[in-house]
Structure formats: C-alpha cells, structure tokens
Amino acid sequence: MKAMELFSEAKEIKKGRIRIETTKDKVEEMIKKLKNNGYEHFVMLSCIDWIKDGKFELVYHMWSYKYKEHVMISIKINRDGETVPTMSHLFPQIETYEREIHEMFGVEFEGNKRLVSFVLEGWPHMPPMRKDFDTEKFVKEHYYKIPEVKEE
Amino acid sequence: MMKEYELFIGPNHPGATGNMSYRLWAEGDKVKRAETRVGYLHRGFEKLMEKRLWMQNVPLVCRICVPEPDINEAAYSMAVEDLMGWEIPERAKYIRTIILELARISSHLMTVGSIAASLGIYTAAQWGIGDRDYILDIFEEITGGRVYHIYIWPGGVRWDLPKNARELITKVLDYLEKRKPMYDDLILNNKVFIRRAAGVGVVPKDKAIEWGVTGPNLRAAGYKLDFRKLEPYAAYDKIDFEIPHYPKLGEYEVVSDGSDIYTRTAIRMLEIVQSIRIIRQALKDMPEGDVLLKQPQWFAWKVPAGYSYVRVESSKGEFGYFVVSDGGKKPVRVHVRGASYTHGINVMETIAPGLNIADFAPTAFSLDVCPPEIER
Asked: Which of A21, B103, B130, B285 is a Cys-bridge partner for B70, taking CB atoms 3.0 to 4.6 Å apart?
C-alpha cells in the first residue's frame, strides 16, 4: 500500500515526495509499517535546528523502489534535553546517522549503544551544527592567536 | 594458539580508500571485527552552507567529492531548481548528462584501477589514472577547471560547450573503447584477479536493500535498480541505455554468485561502456538553444520556503541533497547523503568479520568508499 493510503496525515508536496508530520511516539510504528509496505530503502536521517521555535526537527527519509516514492517523516522535539527513542533496530545504518546527529546537534537517542564520537574527537564545546554555535567567533578565539612561547 | 591482536589501517595507507582508517581485530590473518574511523577530512561543508548565499554555495559543494565533483553541483542545482520551480532549457539537460557521464567514467576508471592495484595489479591503477587525465583535459576545455568544474549551475549550465567539444569528446571516447580490451585482459579476464576476487567480500543479497546499499554495489547483488531510470533527471529519460546488473555481465564470465569484488568490478567496467553510449547519443540528439535560464540578480536570490530532496545516481550509488529553505537568502539546512556513508561504515563493518587481512583492502575499494561523502 502507498504511503498516502497508509497514513491520513501524509501530504504529497510534489510528485513522488510525501511529507508526514507526526510525533515521536508514532514514528517507530510508521517506519515499521512503511518497511513492510514496500518502502524498504532507508535513505537517511536528517536533523534541522529551528532555533526560533526552540525545536529540532528530525526527518526520516524512506524510499520505495516499487512505487518510486520518497517519504519524509518529520518529528519535532524540544531543543534542550528531549530524548528520542532509537530506530537503529529497524535499519542498521540508522545507528550511524543517530551517532552523527548526537555529536553534531546534541540529540540523545535512547537505546542507541554506540553514541560515541564520530567525526570530532574529544570535542568539549557545544555541538557545532546547532545554530547558536558561532563558527566565526569560535575560529577567532581558537585559531587567530599565535600561541605564546613560554620560557622554561 | 594465536592471540587476537589489533591492526590499524590508514589514514595514509595503500589499503585505505582515502583519508579514513579502519581498526581491525584479527586472529592470525582472519579479521574478527572491524571499526571504521573517520574525521580526517571534516571541513564542515554543511555548516558553511548555512552561512552562505544560495549562489555562493555552488563553488563550495563540488569540493565534497574529489573524484566525482559534478554530482554535487547537479544535485544542489536540482534542489534549488525544485524549490524555485524552474524548468531548465533542453540543451542544458543534455550538457548535464554529458558532464555527469564523463565524470562517471573518470571515477570508475580510478576505482577499477584501485581495486586491481589492491590485488597487486599496479599497472591497472596507473592506466586508470592516466586515462582519467584525458577526461580531465575535456573538462578543462569545457569548464576551465580540471578537478572542480563549477559548471552545472542552478538554472542550467554556465555556458555552452565550445565549438570543438564534439570532436574532443568523441576522440577520447574512441580511445577509451580501444583501451577497454586491454583493461579486460589485465583485470577481469586475468586468472590471478578472478581467483582473488571471485566470492570475496560478499554483501548478502537479501540484506543489500535493507542495509541501504545503492549504485553499482546493489546492481552487483542482482538488482536492476538505477536512479537514472527510476527518477530520471537531466536528459536520461530521452536516452536509451542499459543497466548492467548481476547475472547479466555481458562479455564477462559469471564466475561467482555475485555481490563480490569480481562482480562489482565487472559492473563498473560495463557501466563505462554504457556511459560512452549515453554520451554519444547525447552529443547526437542535443538540441540547439539556450543553456541557462534568465535569472534574477545572483546575490539577491530568495528561495521559496520548503523541503526538497533530490537524488542523482553517482558512480558510487545514491547521492542525495536534502535542502530546507525558510524563504530567505541562505539555506536553513543542507544535508548531503553520500552513498559511502552506509557502504563505508555499516556495510563494511558487518561484512569484514571472516575476511582475510589481505582481502580487506580490495573489499573496501570494491565498495568504492569515498570518505568525504561520510563527513561533509
């Protein structure tokens, strides 16, 4: 069955692109349902920082080779401290996407055992993909100074 | 009794596919466990893109993938066009097809050469890099740049092909066709290669889609799936070409159950032939006309609010751009989906146990892992 028939909240934004806005407690059921209905390719998991609303938007992208349709399931969570259950048991590659989002945005995924550092190693600062992380200021503070030579 | 030990491969290692590394735990020469480690190449493209104007991102995105930069330009431009609601001129579609296929050939030549080199056939790698240079010459003639072209642009391509483009391209295609039997003798018809590559580094066929495998790696597993046919972009819907997939390996012998190093190499060689076929058709059928839409002032673009996901079929698999706009002068978020993200991490880590250490590098090369796609 196609996503438009499966879910009443599905909206077709253009041909072959479906967008579903839902809540985090329904997302697992939706991904399972889509997986069993021909949407067997998990494309990726994206995160968007809507800083004005104080929300993170997580977008689960799925594709059906059968219907040639791309479904984006969106959930919004609070920027500070709200956790999301992991989906890595449904598709193994989600583990890595969650690991990256945890590192770059600071989102906690409950049940993902591998939220270890991914690209950044030993990063003590704010997760850098957050909109309030000021790249320019950070660079100026850290890389614009010539380190002092200390006499021993 | 052999004790388990740890082995580090990369980041500067002939067995690593670029600036990345693997940590292996092995017993004797059998890999027990593998862990992919990235982070040597992170340049923060996605963050940078949020700080730059829509147009300023065009010269930036091509830097995401060095061996095949044009897919980035194409996907980013397609996403902007999608949000803007632009339909690009017909001629530009054909030119994009030609550029993307030339890039695919150049990338495949490098990959096939690297796979062979990792099995000791170093000549193939030299040939691959050498022949790729002829394609870079064409790019230089058309776009002015050898590696980064910044030629595909939202709204079409920046300028028309030069007058001698047809002759230049045809000459190189003729040359590559002549070279192919030599590559075949050296690699795919070579008994040494077959014995090392057949049945090694197998991605389970029933798991391939679930694990997010795409591109030549998926076709080597027996699926006839290609986004150039599934969701045609550029001029692919008007061009006649085939999708090489296991077990239809054409002139090559089927020596294994597929989804192994041998089949993945064969699929790439067959795709080079198809790319040549596509370019020849595109050069022949290309209509006359404009190549770039009339556009508003480049530095004052406001892209309508919305979500767009576009994908192209790169030499490595599905390459997608998820672009979010709030109607402003800069993107809110650009998320790049590289095919190597799954191939290099989850797939590689899962199929590595049981591999011989000597087979690890060829397996990684045959999955065509490109680290910059992982850490944009």
From this structure: B103
Please tell me the distance in Å from A25's CA to the nearest CA on chain B: 23
What is the tens place of the pLDDT at every residue in A27-81?
999 999 999 998 999 999 999 999 999 999 999 999 999 999 999 999 999 988 8
Model's pTM, two decimal places?
0.92
- What is the mean pLDDT of each successive set of 10 residues along chain B, which is 376 residues long? 82 75 90 90 89 91 89 93 92 94 93 90 92 94 91 91 92 94 92 91 91 92 92 92 89 88 93 94 92 85 92 92 92 92 91 90 89 86
Q: Which residues contact B49 (CB under 8 A, 6 or more apart)?
A: B57, B60, B61, B331, B334
ipTM of the complex: 0.92
Using CA atoms, how far residue B235 sits from B97, B99, B228, B308, in Å, is 6, 12, 9, 20
Radius of gyration of chain A (CA): 19
**A123 CB within 8 Å of a chain B CB:** no
Interchain contact, B341 vs A46, CB within 8 Å: no
| Strand-strand pairing, B5-9 and A108-110 | unpaired
Domain residue ranges in chain A:
3-143
Q: What residues pair up with A32 in beta bridges, in sequence order?
A: none
The secondary structure element, H or E, covering residue B323 is strand B318-325
The alpha-carbon gap from B261 to the nearest alpha carbon of chain A, in Å, equals 22
Domain boundaries, chain B: 45-374
| Single-letter code of the amino acid located at B141 | E
**How many Å apart are CA A2 and CA B264, to the nearest integer?**
32
Look up the CATH number of domain A3-143: 3.30.460.80
